[in-house]
Amino acid sequence: MSRAENALVRIETAEGKASVVRGDDIDTDRIIPARFMKAVTFDDMGRHAFEDARKAAKGKHPLDDERFSDAEILVVGRNFGCGSSREHAPQALMRFGFKAFIGGSFAEIFAGNCTSLGLPCVTLSVPDLAKLMDAVELDPSQTLHIDIRARTVTSRAGEMQAGIPDGVRYQLLEGSWNATRVLLEAGAAIEAKAASLPYMSPPA
Amino acid sequence: MTDRPKSLFQKVWDAHSVCELASGQTQLLIGTHLIHEVTSPQAFAMLRELSLPVRFPARTFATVDHIIPTDDRSRPLADDLAEAMMSELEQNCREHDIQFFGPDSGAQGIVHVIGPELGLTQPGMTIACGDSHTSTHGAFGAIAFGIGTSQVRDLLATQCLAISPLQVRRIEVTGTLSPGVFAKDVILAIIRKLGVNGGVGFAYEYAGPVIDAMTVEERMTVCNMSIEGGARCGYVNPDEKTVEYLRGRRYTPDDADFPAKAARWLAIASDPDTVYDDVVQIDANAIEPSITWGIHPGHNIGVSEAIPTPNSVPDDERAGVEEALEYMDFVAGTSIAGTSIDVAFIGSCTNGRISDLREAAKIAQTGHVKAGVRALVVPGSAAVREQAEAEGLHEIFRSAGFEWREPGCSMCLAMNPDKLRGREVCASSSNRNFKGRQGSPSGRTLLMSPAMVAAAAIAGEVVDVRKIGGDILESS
């Protein structure tokens, strides 16, 4: 069951054990190779998350490491989710079991897709991220705590300041991350705006 | 009182802003919604669950591009999964009264190729599509960007998106391009300079004498790869070339209204004294035919350069360079020229238009594809294919040993049967050299211009197109 189906869930925190996928510029083709997108639903995406990378790592990939088997937060590097706009990427990670991401930075479309699914993406400074990655790998049993309101990430490495854009933070806190309902509220103002644009109201 | 000068981005944004949302984001009206078979079926399913209709079916346009075979397209498609996706799209379009440019329509093709050629893409529009290369449409002075499937649902239901405005970085390309250096090389040089995440939070406004001198199709190549530099949106201010490109197209007929439309289009360009959030200059004189050696588009060098060593890059890029060298199995410090290739792919939304095929054909007619190299030419659309055949380009390609295919995304992302096998190295005119991108989990991609791909196909290895096609290139 997708979280996106619960339209009014306020997300103030995310808590859980974490796993670390190191490396910058991890693209969405790597997260979900294109050949697995040949489907008309997202149902099957979870088991293909990072499939080629995991096969290439021959059991050594963090997603196959038993120490992190119940991780719900994924800690990643810079520019995570770059490339294709495929929502299949966050869908795959969500269905694999992740409910939040902590990273150096996120590609814009990936982050937007995560917001649409109610999956917070928060950023840390370079030194804090390095510290957190080390701490999680050293002690996978610890619980990480992301506080969206306070903009913090807390772990055994201490409390760290986390970045999240204001608009996204608001959407998560107010439960308006599933945008359809909010956008519908504009009602006839949508048609009025369209009518003001010559190309959207061509002469009869 | 004089209005403060505005960028095109600001003008288009303001004209499409329905309201400011409580989140502080803009409720932005999207004028043109393009859909395809990969990222839309789940959105239609969500719409059905919500019992909502498509709000503006007449502003939604569909085609099939990612999964369609480029050889035998007879129905049902040989691949059951591909057939299911295609059928689902057809069904959704019928049910919601959406115009579908199917394989038999004569107008099918890669969504970012057919939008412009049908005149669906126009200056001053907002355009969105569940595809990151939607930035292509910015070449016309539209604000166009890729979205995910949940946003496709938002758009189908409301014709709007909840989105924060971007900053605008003006990228001025100065100087002139030498023969053999193409729009592809310009955008690769920009990404090399600004990085694959340098554009996050920005719309790129491409400008300067080199962009001004480009054809509209060349501008599409540049805007197309904005997302490879992290910018989800890139655009060029419309000018007379934009107007002439659009004159007489299906959705921009050369009728009594056309002059008024054209005047509106030209007026949407950024005002002369606009203050930008950032300005960057790129010297085109220094750009040579470029080529990727690694696993993202920022990993590119000029054809005369050597593959970088991990020690030659900043500390925070070293691990990425080491990973790329290992994956590619390339030796740092050696020349990229001379690298053997197994496959040559000419096509994609980056370089699958008629001008790309003309440039590649000029090189193709100088020789024959090297024995052992598989070479494919995949036109970006049915219209491109038809035009190329009218010009006899297909015969040039065929007699040079290239396969001449039906239009689609093909081996750019290999969701159809066109795939690399094993560790093959592909000289490709597409946009992404990510690990496994072209269908083999261990396949390797070298991005370059279509002319460079054709040259590599003939030589069987990476070569400087200026050495093969010197005279031809000079005369172009």
In words, what does this structure look like?
- The complex is a heterodimer of chains A (204) and B (476).
- With 204 residues, chain A is of the alpha/beta class.
- Chain A has one domain (3-200): Aconitase, domain 4, CATH 3.20.19.
- Chain A is built from 8 helices and 8 strands, in the order ββααβαβαβαβββααα.
- Chain A has helices at residues 28-31, 51-57, 88-96, 108-116, 126-138, 166-174, 179-184, 188-195; strands spanning 13-16, 18-21, 73-76, 100-103, 121-123, 144-147, 152-155, 158-161.
- In chain A, strands 1-6-7-8 form a 4-stranded antiparallel beta sheet, with helices on one face. In chain A, strands 2-3-4-5 form a 4-stranded parallel beta sheet.
- In chain A, strand 3 (73-76), helix 3 and strand 4 form a beta-alpha-beta unit.
- The N and C termini of chain A lie far apart (46 Å).
- By secondary structure, chain B is an alpha/beta fold.
- Chain B has 2 domains: 8-278, Aconitase, domain 3, CATH 3.30.499.10; 290-474, Aconitase, domain 3 (2-Layer Sandwich).
- Helix content of chain B is 34%, strand content 17%.
- Chain B has a 5-stranded parallel beta sheet, covered by helices on one side.
- Chain B is globular.
- The mean pLDDT of chain B is 97.
- Chains A and B meet through helix 2, helix 4, helix 6, helix 7 and helix 8 of A and strand 1, helix 2, helix 3, helix 5 and strand 8 of B.
